[in-house]
Design a protein that fits this description.
The chain is 53% helix and 6% strand. The chain is mainly alpha-helical. GO terms for molecular function: DNA-binding transcription factor activity.
């Protein structure tokens, strides 16, 4: 199963933007992430809609932070990207008549909700500045 790396990619981009004194183009970001500029623009568009980045068109244009890294948490970015499920464990037949299957699904679902609540609470306490290091190469 393929892992969703959108959150880590967005965090990577935002921290780099926080270190740059000038806007960074989608093309530059796409090379850094080894992906297509369209993928970058789509993700950055969601971050712009939520007020975390701005964009300027034309020569010397690109993406810049709208807020300080100290003001942005992991939870903020998780929500801006669509608040997806953090865990991808699937359930068997949700409408099963089997009592054992229902019990298994109920317990797995509640356990994952509990674990997700702990993780989201932790996300709310970590700012992007907490992750910021002076590494201009990656």
């Amino acid at each position: 199963m393929r892992k969703d790396s959108q959150l880590s990619r967005a965090l990577h981009i935002l921290i780099h933007l926080g270190q740059k004194p000038h806007p960074v183009t989608s093309e530059t970001i796409s090379k850094m992430l080894k992906t297509n500029p369209v993928v970058v623009r789509r993700m950055m568009g969601r971050l712009r809609e939520n007020g975390y980045v701005t964009s300027v068109k034309g020569h010397n244009g690109g993406w810049s932070l709208s807020r300080s890294l100290r003001e942005i948490t992991l939870l903020d970015i998780h929500k801006a990207l669509g608040d997806k499920n953090l865990f991808t464990i699937g359930f068997t037949e949700p409408d099963s008549k089997c009592l054992i299957e229902k019990a298994v699904n109920t317990q797995l679902e509640q356990t994952m909700k509990d674990a997700e609540a702990v993780l989201l609470d932790k996300f709310a306490k970590v700012t992007l500045n907490d992750l910021n290091i002076s590494d201009s190469e990656s």
